[in-house]
């Protein structure tokens, strides 16, 4: 058997590693800022670009797609080459992938700060960036599959399967959820409306967690945990079962994000059932990881890398047990919309993703620089700071979530709400928000210590761009390739072509098929539900721009505690013109679905200018710029047109006269405000926002009044 | 709720793809040996230890 000489590309691994660390710091810093704004709203520096609604998505996108994303690529580019005994398929594609991804991250940060957002969680980026993501993802795919095809090891190690599943599923999720109609270069509307949009979004949202934060990391665990412990995985058979069971079950669990919503009951139950089933493969994986260390726990005591990994795997186990529990309807009724969910995701994010990343970095950096870790002591310090940070973070958020939910649902002896003022329930948990920020700060401090440690490590070693290696060629398969032309055809360029065409065909097919399909089904089921007026539509887009949905839900669940507080529960038919849906997933502030008509225009005007003038102690940020910025009415026609193409029944040609209606409605609101003594001007953004807020949920109210007459 | 049909179809498509991949993996003997791969991955075939592997 002849040995082939080749080299591994270490440079790309280094680049992704550095990006992981830099974006990790950025994402966590923004997270700390966001968390601090919840008890000190003035930390938005009175700037719209750094206000909660806009930087919360920057935090989530940065930690998920920038920090974890780059860590995935770092791990995949390092381990895939070794597992396949082959250099990455194309150095150029590696470069394109790396720089393209970083460019996307920068574009994301800038656009989100500017308020350019689709408002769909973890899919906030607007359509030009969506297209860029697709292209870069395809580059990654060609590079990965190319490497797999030219591998020198016949067996595909289980980690590779996890990488493949990640690539395929993320591609499909991203495409299906991002089908949108562009209005301008930086604004689009999703083709789905209301309940449908919600279902697609959480099918995506859940699987984004599954296939971006979980499967790639499981692959990484199956590579780096045995490597770090220098012993094989406990049961390779179990890892294979783990993979296939997880893949077939995961994709069906999405509806558990929409329990008690306007989604049909059977779909909700389906989501619950699959969520419960997920415990089996998830715990199989966790046990497999932990048992790898059987008989070697003395190593864990000494080695900080293993400590990080053990906590990571344990956090994975806890989060994947808690997840199914949270998708039980009775638990969900209590926990949904509260900080409990924030605790749940951060067990996963800080524990599973964060700690596994740190473990990988501590193992990988000395390896790449051909040296030993600079200081085990500092790594241990990092470990304990991080662990303490997680404990502070999680316990405070569990406490706050449970407290708030109990207060929301508490009735007095005579059957009225014990805490009718939502603000009371917020003020109660502010100390917990402070503890949470402390936990985050501890965690981040640990990261800075890690950076120092790794810098020192790199300094004492020497980095090798291309690591020489040799391995025998894959004999069996080359024989096959010579025998059958079919395999040869598969081996060559057509593979890339196949991949590309799959994506193109998928996009093309879906783009053609789904809109027609959707438009037909968007027939209103409630007669009194009308499309938004042009002014309300513009106001709605301001609501989206400012990220109001980050703290305010628009979904009243059919519980007495909610109908008592907010009004009639939400019906599916009320959302048929909502492109996108704005149900939200967290109630830091009260639900707004029945906000229309609750307060006079003046209240909203003053409240947006300075919330604590209306609600003393409120932690909502001020939005003074809405009172001074002019409403951009040049987009009205394009927006109406886009809505019409999505099946919203405006009269033909309405886009041409929409602005006249807009001015008329703005005049009425402005006059009302002026009469009440507010120096409001007709052409300001606040007028549109008030129009939208006053419209919210009123379609059904009108209906009831008419019925009573 | 027609979008649920789309989602189920897409999800089934993904599942079908993985099923084919699974059948291929089993048929092509990927899982004939469920022990060696777990040990093999521990050895890096960098030049210095390539002698030992043979």
Mean pLDDT of chain B: 78
Seen as an oligomer or otherwise, the chain set is heterodimer
Individual helix count of chain B: 3
Cα-based radius of gyration of chain A, to the nearest Å: 27 Å
Count of beta strands of chain A: 4
What structural class should be given to the helix and strand makeup of chain A?
A: mainly alpha
Describe this structure in words.
Chain A is mainly α. Chain A has two domains: 9-491, Cytochrome c oxidase-like, subunit I domain (Cytochrome C Oxidase, Chain A), CATH 1.20.210.10; 534-708, Cytochrome c-like domain (Cytochrome Bc1 Complex, Chain D, domain 2). Chain A has helices at 11-37, 52-84, 91-113, 127-149, 158-177, 194-229, 236-250, 265-277, 279-291, 297-302, 304-326, 329-335, 339-368, 376-409, 422-428, 430-460, 475-483, 485-491, 494-521, 534-545, 560-566, 601-609, 611-614, 625-628, 636-645, 654-675, 685-695, 698-708; strands at 3-9, 180-184, 187-190, 466-472. Residues 477-484, 486-492 and 705-709 of chain A have low confidence and may be disordered. With 54 residues, chain B is an all-alpha fold. Helices cover 63% and strands 0% of the residues of chain B. Chain B has helices spanning 3-27, 36-40, 50-53. The model of chain B is unreliable at 49-54 (pLDDT under 50). The chains are: A mainly alpha (709), B mainly alpha (54).
């Amino acid at each position: 058997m002849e040995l082939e000489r080749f080299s591994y590309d270490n440079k790309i691994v280094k680049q992704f590693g550095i990006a992981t660390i830099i974006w990790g710091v950025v994402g966590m810093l923004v997270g700390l800022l966001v968390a601090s704004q919840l008890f000190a709203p003035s930390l938005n520096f009175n700037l719209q670009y750094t206000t909660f609604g806009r930087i919360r998505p920057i935090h989530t996108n940065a930690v998920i797609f920038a920090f974890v994303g780059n860590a995935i690529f770092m791990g995949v580019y390092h381990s895939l080459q070794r597992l396949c005994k082959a250099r990455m398929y194309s150095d150029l594609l590696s470069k394109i992938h790396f720089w393209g991804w970083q460019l996307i991250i920068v574009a994301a940060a800038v656009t989100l700060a500017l308020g350019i957002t689709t408002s769909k969680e973890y899919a906030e980026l607007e359509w030009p960036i969506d297209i860029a993501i697709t292209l870069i993802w395809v580059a990654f795919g060609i590079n990965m599959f190319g490497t797999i095809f030219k591998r020198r090891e016949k067996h595909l190690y289980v980690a590779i399967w996890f990488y493949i599943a990640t690539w395929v599923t993320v591609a499909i999720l991203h495409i299906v959820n991002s089908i949108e109609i562009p209005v301008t270069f930086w604004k689009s509307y999703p083709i789905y409306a209301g309940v449908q949009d919600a279902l697609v979004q959480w099918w995506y949202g859940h699987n984004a967690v599954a296939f971006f934060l979980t499967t790639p990391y499981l692959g990484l665990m199956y590579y780096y945990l045995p490597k770090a412990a220098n012993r094989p995985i406990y049961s390779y058979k179990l890892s294979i079962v783990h993979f296939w069971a997880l893949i077939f079950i995961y994709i069906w669990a999405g509806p558990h994000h929409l329990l008690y919503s306007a989604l049909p009951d059977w779909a909700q139950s389906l989501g619950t059932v699959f969520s419960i089933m997920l415990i089996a493969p998830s715990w199989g994986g966790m046990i497999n990881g932990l048992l790898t260390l059987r008989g070697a726990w003395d190593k864990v005591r000494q080695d900080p890398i293993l400590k990080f990994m053990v906590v990571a795997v344990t956090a994975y186990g806890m989060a994947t047990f808690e997840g199914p529990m949270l998708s039980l309807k009775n638990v969900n009724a209590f926990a949904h919309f509260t900080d409990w969910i924030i605790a749940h995701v951060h067990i996963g994010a800080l524990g599973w993703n964060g700690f596994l990343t740190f473990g990988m970095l501590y193992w990988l950096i000395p390896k790449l620089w051909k040296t030993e870790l600079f200081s085990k002591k500092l790594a241990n310090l990092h470990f304990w700071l991080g662990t303490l940070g997680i404990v502070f973070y999680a316990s405070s958020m569990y406490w706050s979530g449970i407290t708030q939910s109990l207060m929301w649902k508490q009735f007095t002896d005579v059957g009225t709400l014990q805490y009718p003022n939502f603000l009371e329930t917020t003020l109660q948990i502010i100390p917990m928000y402070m503890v949470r920020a402390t936990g985050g700060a501890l965690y981040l401090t640990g990261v800075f210590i890690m950076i120092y440690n790794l810098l020192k490590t790199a300094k004492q070693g020497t980095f090798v761009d291309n690591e020489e290696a040799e391995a025998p060629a894959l004999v069996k398969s080359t024989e096959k390739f010579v025998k059958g032309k079919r395999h040869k055809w598969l081996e060559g360029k057509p593979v890339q072509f196949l991949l590309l065409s799959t994506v193109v065909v998928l996009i093309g097919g879906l783009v053609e098929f789904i809109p027609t399909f959707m438009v037909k089904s968007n027939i209103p089921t409630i007669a009194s539900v009308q499309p938004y007026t042009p002014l309300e539509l513009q106001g709605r887009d301001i609501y989206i721009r400012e990220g109001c949905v980050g703290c305010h839900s628009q979904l009243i669940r059919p519980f007495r505690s909610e109908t008592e507080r907010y009004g009639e529960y939400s019906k599916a038919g009320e959302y048929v013109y909502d492109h996108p849906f704005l149900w939200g997933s967290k109630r830091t502030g009260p639900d707004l679905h029945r906000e229309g008509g609750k307060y006079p225009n003046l209240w909203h005007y003053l409240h947006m200018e300075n919330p604590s003038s209306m609600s003393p102690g409120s932690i909502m940020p001020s939005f003074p710029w809405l009172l001074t910025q002019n409403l951009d009415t040049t987009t009205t026609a394009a927006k109406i047109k886009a809505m019409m193409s999505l099946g919203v029944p405006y009269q033909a040609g309405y886009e041409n006269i929409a602005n006249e209606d807009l001015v008329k409605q703005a005049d009425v609101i402005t006059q009302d405000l002026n009469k009440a003594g507010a120096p409001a001007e007709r052409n300001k953004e606040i007028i549109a926002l008030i129009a939208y807020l006053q419209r919210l949920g009123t379609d059904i109210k009108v209906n009831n009044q008419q019925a009573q007459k | 709720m027609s979008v649920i049909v789309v989602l189920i179809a897409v999800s089934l498509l993904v599942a079908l793809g993985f099923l084919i991949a699974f059948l291929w993996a089993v048929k092509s003997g990927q899982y004939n040996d469920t022990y060696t791969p777990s040990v093999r991955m521990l050895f890096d075939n960098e030049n210095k230890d390539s002698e030992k592997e043979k």
